[in-house]
Amino acid sequence: MTSDAAPLILSVFSSFEVGGPQVRFATLANSFGRAFRHAIVAMDGKLGCAQRLSPDLDVTYPELDIRKGRTLANAWRFRHALATLRPALLVTSNWGSIEWALANALPLVPHIHAEDGFGPQERSAQLRRRVLLRSALLRRHTVVVPSRTLWRIAHEVWRLPEQRLRYIPNGIDLARFVQGPRLSPPGEGPVIGTVAALRAEKNIPRLLRAFAILSRSMAARLVIVGDGPESPRLRALAVELGLGDRVAFPGHHEDPAAFYRGFDLFALSSDTEQMPLSVLEAMAAGLAVVATEVGDVRDMLSPENLPFLTPQDDAALADRMLRLLADAPLRSAIGAANRARAARDYDQAAMIRAWRHLFDALLPAETR
After folding, report:
1. Which residues, including other chains, have CB under 8 Å from residue 184's CB and lie 6 or more apart?
2. How far is 106 from 303, CA to CA, in rounded Å?
3. Which residue range forms the structural domain that includes residue 42?
4. What's the CATH code of the domain at 158?
5. What is the pTM of this model?
6. Rounded distance between C-alpha atoms, residue 293 and residue 301, angstroms
7. I want to staple 288 with a disulfide (CB 3.0 to 4.6 A). Which of 69, 96, 294, 331 is the partner?
8. pLDDT digit string (tens) for 197-254?
């Protein structure tokens, strides 16, 4: 099939900055190649993840009049855009794109909604208004979730029919994390690392405070890879805690694999997650993981790693990190078990096959 004849997929994100759902989309689009054309809408106008798309792809970025807080007016404009663009398939991502589900409430095109998790507003409980809208607007469409936790929420809380739900776990390119250069900061002691968008729900202050506790007992280093709105606050907190040059903030990196290879231990301190890509990447790199018990993290990790899940508590996080840093053979054994688990259950090729099968099943027959 030539590109001109290829079906058009319209993908909508609250933002197309680099993040888990956006990186997954880029992986899928690059893998599918010219089998599809793509139109990408970022509700905030930010397109940072576009750099991850192959230059060989047929991609456009429609310019739309999007007005924050004007739900009904937006939905009307989006419905007009659907009628004008005539995509073969609409794919929306997370709550930030829900106005497109309203626009397609009387379906113009087949619709997949991918739900990857929740922002700070819903880290403790589901908001009733959002529950009602998800239930009303998504029940006739296909909803894809990467975690068992989200599947249960979609079915039991949003009351979506089982036949509309698809569980497709995220996958990882294992080969990227095996061999190559290692990036570690100068200094003494083992390296604790995390890779995250520096947003409030990631609760990096918890990790900094836990590291300060740990540093009273052991010389170690902490590397926080990523960028985001919390960055200035986090840098100031590191200084306030007296951590000085023991904490490195290398910023955002397109491919953080070299950092993972330089870590001795991976830490996740989030308040809310579902199936964090960073944990998969740490597993692929053969790392032991200390993490707050959120989302599907317990189901993702190897059984050997489970004693090192923690409540959302600074001291507990510090204790688990210290125990693993003090026992290199145990870290190595857990890391190997995590790597084997990633290879068995979270291979990227399986994820790509599952998404392609879903696209092919939902595309109108005349566009296949």
Report:
1. 191, 221, 223, 262, 263
2. 46
3. 8-171+348-367
4. 3.40.50.2000
5. 0.79
6. 11
7. 331
8. 899 999 999 999 999 999 999 999 999 999 999 999 999 999 999 998 899 999 988 8
